[in-house]
Specification:
alpha/beta, eight-stranded parallel β-barrel, 12 helices, 16% strand, disordered C terminus
Amino acid sequence: MTINIGLTGWGDHPSLYSENTRSENKLSEYASHFPVVEVDTAFYAIQPVSRYEKWLKETPDSFSFVIKAFNQLTGHDRESRSVQEARDLILRYEESIQPVWEAGSVHTLLFQFPPWFDVRKENIRKLRYIREWLEPYPIALEFRNRTWFQDEYREQTLSFMKDQQWIHSICDEPQAGEGSVPRVLVPTHPEKTLVRFHGRNTHGWNKNGRKDWRKVRFLYRYSREELTEWAEKARELEQQTPELTLLFNNNSGGDAADNAKQFQELLDIQYEDLNPRQMDLFNF
C-alpha cells in the first residue's frame, strides 16, 4: 500500500522556498519535499516536449507527475468539435507527454470536466472515446457536476468508471449546488485512487463572475480537526486501493503546502528518494 501526498503545481507555495529561490529552480526544490505534483499548466496549454524533458531532469527517478488534460479536451472552451478533431487534439496532447511516459513518471492523466458536463448520453460517449484513445494510460476522472452522483445515477456512474478503468478523482470541496460534487469515497480502478482537496469555501466556490474568482474559490485552510478526519478516511481508502495519492489545491492563500505537511505528519509518513534538501549554511 502506498500513500503519496503532493500539491497542484509547484510555483505558488512560499513556505517551501527560501526568498532567494528562483522560479526556474522551484520544481527541483519542491521535489525535496513531496514525491508527486500535479502539472496544472497542462490544462491551459499543451506543453512543449522540451519542457517535460526539463522537468524530468529536475526531479528524481521516483518522482511522478499528475498531468492535467488540456482544457479543450474537457470542453472548458465550450467549442464543438467533430470526433476526428477531438482525436487529433488527443494525439497532440499525447505526443507532448511522451518524455514523461517513456521515463515511467506519469502518475495519472487527470481529466477534470467543467460544471456544465452533466450526465447525458453524449457526455458518456465522449468519456468512452477518451478512454479508448488513451487506452495504455492511467487516466483519472473528476466531475464538477453533481448529477453524476445523484441517487438515480450514482451506482451506474461508479460501475461505468470501474468497467472503463477510470481512476476516481475523489473531491473534498464545498457543497455549493449543481457545480460541485459530494465526497464519494469509492475507488474505481484496480491500482490507483486520487483525492484532490479544493478547500471548503462555500461562499467563494461559485463566484465565477468576479475577476479574482480563482483566488476566492480556493481560499481555505483546513483545520487540524478536518485533516484528522481525513487521515482516518485515507487509512480506510488505503485498504481498498494499492496506491492512494492526495493533492492539495487550496492555495489561494498559500495554505496547501502547510496543510499537506500537516497531513503527512498525521499519517506519520516519511518519504525517501527525494531530491536533497537545500541547506541554509547560516541557519544552525
